[in-house]
Amino acid sequence: MLLRSSQGITRSIIMCAQRYSTMWPTKAYVNGEWCDAKSGKTFDVVNPATGKTIATVPDLDASDVQVAINAANDAFNTWKKTTAKERSDLLRNWYNILVKNKDYLADIVTSEAGKPLAESLGEVAYGNSFVEWFSEEARRTYGEHVPSPNKTKEILMIRQPLGPVGLITPWNFPIAMITRKAGAALAAGCTCVIKPAENTPITALVLAKFAEDAGIPKGVINIVTTSRENTPEIGKLLCESPDIYGISFTGSTEVGKLLYKQCSSTVKRVGLELGGNAPFVVFNEADIDKAVAGAMASKFRNCGQTCVSANRFIIQKNVFTEFVDKLKVEMDKLVMGDGKTCGVNLGPLINFAQADKVDRIVNDAKNKGATIITGGKRALSVGERFYEPTLITNVTKDMACYVEEIFGPVAVCIEFDTEQEGLEIANSTNRGLAGYFYSNDLSQVWRVAKALEVGMVGVNEGIISATEAAFGGVKESGLGREGSRHGMDEYTEIKYICFGNLEY
Description:
By secondary structure, this protein is α/β, with parallel strands linked by helices. The chain is 38% helix and 20% strand. The chain has helices at residues 7-20, 62-79, 84-100, 102-113, 117-137, 176-188, 201-213, 231-240, 253-263, 288-300, 320-331, 352-367, 400-403, 419-426, 442-451; strands spanning 28-30, 33-35, 42-46, 53-58, 144-146, 154-161, 165-168, 192-195, 221-223, 246-250, 269-273, 278-282, 310-316, 371-374, 390-393, 410-416, 431-432, 434-438, 456-459, 474-475, 478-479, 492-499. The strands form six sheets. The chain has a seven-stranded mixed β-sheet with strand order 14-15-16-13-12-18-19, with helices on both faces. Strands 9-8-7-10-11-21 form a six-stranded mixed β-sheet, sandwiched between helices. Helix 15 links the parallel strand 18 and strand 19 (456-459). The longest helix has 21 residues, at 117-137. The radius of gyration is 23 Å and the shape is globular.
């Protein structure tokens, strides 16, 4: 089930927040300096649960970000020459500081992203684990010795850092999406220009402050804060700059396609973790109670605002009614509100645009004949960005909820008859990030796991993300993999060295 806030957790974090909230960094971080935009422009950071401004940060433009790119290039000249052991030790220092300040970080995530505190603590632990993991992987960036076909030659392949990279991160996991990218990049010997989402820049700035405290040199990490208005020009600059050698982006497929196109002018390395439309298939052979528990965890974490959130519940005919009835019981237990309030386990949507989108999708389903089992409207009595947990049945292919990624607390249930029909529905999308299914038939488990057209599969499990596992999708859900040992691949180049005219 969902993590639930306890009174003890809430009090501990709030006390920590009261001690440190006035210490939040509110300036951009470029070349080891805390700076304002040259224009003097700023933008507000808003708590989505309360609608109140919690900070004001610089609104950097392209000229400001060019300074950061230059700093990353200068720093790369020395950072690339550090040993793997040196980089490992610095990342471990960073990790230790992050762990020591987990309550402080969780409070910031809840303040910026609206997550319940228990969920924020979970993200902090998850995000920190990437720094720990890549501190260890730094020393395992192995090359290869290949047996030569020629007696007078030897073949070696070594890995070298790609160069300065641009990291563009989303608001829904403001810690983990930075550490998953930056941890790997720094471990490989790359330097970074990081553009966090305009909704959650404070988290990124705090990560930079702790990296500075850990001894990571100036220019290795740069945080450029920009408003939504300036984001397109900053993204274009990072993609087209010849001094940025790779781009890693997590966000919507539409924006990812644009960035991919912009990167073509310099033929740079591109890593894209894009939108999903995750199927959650429940077969007749499933344990329905476990399937419902997995559905709750997958669907309602961060109010449904995750790229791997179950988007379409595809339920086999014989267990459809049982699953829907039990899912409604659990959904009715959800408590909406400010994530810093004890007992709350469902926060707000991030902004009005997202609330409008969810409302549009649900109203479209209503107007086309769907049945709303529970929920179905904004929870204005709780707050302007809150939406009731919503359960929809009698869904048809012409409804937006059948084809669109919802990114909200809406469970769409679709009935199917045969295994083949269920797979056809699951795969009937151009997205392929994550997929889930429940069955206790071993043969079916193997067939379906191979047949689902996704990059990650949860078998009898609703939460699949792990630092040790390769995260990424197929189709239009992205390119490359993050986390795991493969996460280093995105930030290294393989150099082939041939030694010739050897005498033995």
